Prior knowledge:
Jelly Rolls; three-stranded antiparallel beta sheet; elongated; alpha+beta; five-stranded antiparallel beta sheet
Amino acid sequence: MRTEVITVRTGNAPVVVDVTREAERFLDAVASEKDGLLHVFVPHATAGLAIIETGAGSDDDLLTAIDALLPAEDTWRHRHGSHGHGRDHVLPAWIPPYASLPVLGGRIALGTWQSICLVDPNGDNPVRQVRFSFLAG
């Protein structure tokens, strides 16, 4: 198994960050036209990974849906951090901190409009890590 950790600056506001190019760069270095599995993991309690379309408004729609499903209110029992931060700790139950994707011939087998995205609603932590691991088949 080959692994690499990248650092992603997410800033101080909720954001969806496409990390597909970084995943492809990682596979270029380690997969060498092999088949296998790419596992992506975010080691944070308040962030997740989603496989979605980006650039056509879907990333903003996802953040709007998170706000509707998990409003940033002071009603959460988990209350440290910024206003409504408790909802950020519930996020990984809906948007998990991991994704596993097939790799065929050294390339991620994503659909035409799919991207690997870091979802970070927590403005309290402006820097995140993403771990890529390749398991050859």
